[in-house]
Amino acid sequence: MSLSNFSIKSRLLVLCLVPTVVIIGFAVNSVIRIQEQLHSYTVIDEKARTLNLLSVLSGHIYQGVTKRVEGLPSQTSVSLATETIKRIEKVSHVQGHNHHSGEYNPQTLQHLEEIKELLPELNNASPQGTVEIARLMYEILYDIYFDIQKIESHDANVAIHKLDLVLSDLSWLYYWMEREAWLARELNVLGWDYSDFAPQYFRINERQQFYLDKYITKVPVPIRLKNCLRCFLVEIFAVVAI
Question: In whole angstroms, what is the distance from residue 155 CA to residue 4 CA?
Answer without folding.
Answer: 46
